[in-house]
C-alpha cells in the first residue's frame, strides 16, 4: 500500500506510528551509547561489549529505516500537523497530545527528583559521578520513550 492510496486520517495514523517508532529507536540509540560507556567504565569486556555494539548497529539501521518511512508519511500530512501537531483526525490529535503530555510530565518528574535529591548528601556523590552527557542522554531516552509508548499503546487499542 502506498502513501497516495491512504486517506488523510490513515496517513496521519501511519505518521504517528512511525513517529513513535522513531522515538523508540532514537531512545535506543542514546541508551545504547549510555550503556556502552557505563559498561566500559565498569571494566566489562568480551562478548557483553560486542553484543551491545551489535545491538547498537541494529538500532542505527532501524533508526534510519524508520526515519525514511517517517519522511514518506510526513509528505502526506498538512504542515500544521507536522509542525504543530494540529491533525485533521481527532483521534490522531488526541494520541499526539497524550504522547506529548506524557513526555512532558515524565521529564518534569525526573528533573524535579534530580533537583530534590541533588541536595541530599547521600545522593550528591552519585550526581557528581554521573557525566553530564550521560545524564542528558538518559533524559533524551526517557523523553522519547515517554512520548512513544502512549502513542503506540493508543494505536494498538484502536485495532482491538
List the helices and strands and how they pair.
Blueprint: H1 8-41, H2 47-74, H3 79-84, H4 90-118, H5 121-129, H6 132-158
Helix pairs in contact: 1-2, 1-6, 4-6
Please name the defining characteristics of this protein.
160 residues; mainly alpha; 6 helices
Number of strands: 0
Distance between the termini: 22 Å
Q: Beta-strand percentage? A: under 5%
Secondary-structure element series: HHHHHH
Oligomer: single chain
- Main sheet: strands, sense, barrel: none
Low-confidence stretches: none
Mean residue pLDDT: 84
State the share of residues found in helices, binned by percent. over 70%
The gross shape turns out to be flat
Number of helices: 6
The count of domains is 1
The assigned structural class equals: mainly alpha
Radius of gyration: 19 Å
Please, could you describe this protein's structure?
There is one protein chain. With 160 residues, this protein is mostly helical. It has one domain (3-158). The chain is built from six helices and no strands. Helix 4 (90-118) runs antiparallel to helix 6 (132-158). It is flat. The model has no long low-confidence stretch (mean pLDDT 84).
